[in-house]
Write a structure and sequence with these properties.
The complex is a heterodimer of chains A (432) and B (175).
Chain A lengths: L6 E4 L2 H19 L2 H17 L8 E6 L4 E3 L3 E10 L2 E9 L4 E5 L4 E9 L2 E9 L3 E4 L2 E7 L5 E9 L2 E5 L2 H7 L22 E7 L11 H7 L3 E6 L5 E6 L10 H20 L3 E5 L6 E2 L5 H16 L20 E7 L4 H12 L3 E7 L11 H23 L3 E5 L5 H23 L1
Parallel strand pairs in A: 3-12, 15-16, 15-18, 18-19, 19-20
Antiparallel strand pairs in A: 1-11, 2-4, 4-8, 5-7, 5-10, 6-8, 9-12, 10-11, 13-14, 16-17
Helix pairs in contact in A: 1-2, 5-6
Chain B lengths: L5 H25 L2 H16 L7 H17 L9 H21 L2 E2 L3 H25 L5 H21 L8 H5 L2
Helix pairs in contact in B: 1-2, 1-3, 1-4, 2-3, 3-4, 4-5
The chains are: A alpha/beta (432), B mainly alpha (175).
Amino acid sequence: MSRNSWRRRADPRLPGYLMAGLGAMIASIATGQHELAALGAPFLALAAIGLADRHPVETTGQVTLPHDLVIEDDVVSGQVSVDWEGEAEVEIMLAGWKGITPVEPAPNIRWSLPQRTGPATVPFELRAQSWGTHDLGALWVRVRRPGSLLFWERKLTAAPAIRVLPSPLRLQRLLRPSEPRAVSGMHLSRSRGHGTDFAELRPYQPGDRLRDLSWSTSARLGAPWVTVHHPERTGTVLLLLDAFFSNEQAGPESLARAARAAWAVASVHLGAQDRVGLLARGRTAAWVPPQGGLRARWLLMEALLSVGGAAEDVWRRRRGSRPIVPADALIVGVTTLRSDTFLQDLLHHCRTGHTVGTLVIDTADLMPDPKGPVDVVARRIWQANRSARRDSLERSGVSTALVTAEKGVGPAVSALRRRMRTRRRIHIGRGA
Amino acid sequence: MKSPGHGGRLVGGAAVVVAALTGLTGALLGATGGFMFGAVALVMLSVLALPYPFLITGQLIAGSTLAAAILLSEPAEPISVLPLVAGIVATAELLALAARRRTAQSRGFGDEVRRLAVAILIAEGVFGAVLWLGGLPGPTGLLAIVLASGACVALSFVLIGRSPSGHSLDQTLRP
């Protein structure tokens, strides 16, 4: 522990004792009255005693939360453990928290422990006020030796963050599908087999069913050809969730937009009996329950919150740590296009033969108003950069659509569907 | 464990009561309108120091000024200022304790009460001892007092040093 990290402060009594004592001494000298010196001496004596021990107290501490994932309005219990050397008076405080309301102690999460030796553990309770990822701030301590007029304060450690899922009622309102059938039939499974949806024509091979023979094609080409269909089974849709926002933008509205976009895609594919997976952190997807419902919504929100307020995640940077994606999966990215590594992942999936679409969440309106020409130019550069990234994705075969605040999710999903269909037709046309 | 603010209010109330008694003592010892005004100022500063702890400095200066004025006035006996000094120190200690307890959940009162008693005893003892030393015949007494007090002041300034820069916890908490 570096001594420099401590901040030394004086008790308000210290300047009072010194000034009262000094003033009386000066008056004593000026007037020649020894009684005034007697008056000043006690104050100076108390000041000197209060300054006797000037060394900081070695202190360690941590904040523990048994659960870091709760539902809105839940009460979360945790505890703060602090240890220090020797005997001291310790004030402990959690400062800088957001999105929570202290329940015990209230209104501040702050304790004043009497003169004692460490360690000490104090419990606290707080209420998750609004959904989102909330930082509990930092653990501060203020330590003083018994009777000292100097105290030392220091930020010991950062407190953990809690992820707060929306309450059931809010969740229903938040994730109400805007266009229930907007993406119905958006993609077909890349697997081929017995079904009704046409996949391709190919020359007859031993083992093919006679009923699959295309009589017209066979007659025209003079050789037996068979029609191949997409199988009658569910497809796989994988929602790839990006680390959406910087900490400043990780407000509920930003996350709500991402959640609405992801849920619009997920709910429709769940309705079409597709298997829907969420991939936020790690390499394996969490599969959404086929019935949808609250559990599925919460799963989506949990996945979003796990990346919602985070900076660009490190796991994507490691070589060979790309997520495991089923071969027949349709991949839909939900992103703000801030992360280079996320873009590289999308391109990688496109190159490996997956059909990839991307919903780009627009958060430009959530930014604070520009304060000057520099801010205006910076915003233009940011928007130009985002457009360039979208163009780059489009050129590489990834369809994109922008989810704006004005138009909402529905039109964006429809636009994405149209682009993906057009691209597929072009692809089939080139193949033919 | 008491809820935050409860202990602070109790100790703050005690501080105001002690400040009022100290002011009353000062007014009775001075026995003129000017001293009455000084006593009222002392009590007012003590009350204001409850929400604004930095005013403890002002309370101490006001108290010592009142005591000095009483000592300089003709009819007063120097030893009669003893309860006034005790009251000033007790008020300052109680105000500092109230400030600590106002926003924090606190445990235990025993140590603070003991520390308050020790501070009052030190103040009384030093005041009495120095007053007795000053009463010794010849200039030696006053010289000894001045030298001892000067050493105390020099030592205090050396010990205080310069506080490292940076925001305090109070600044961090300020919205």
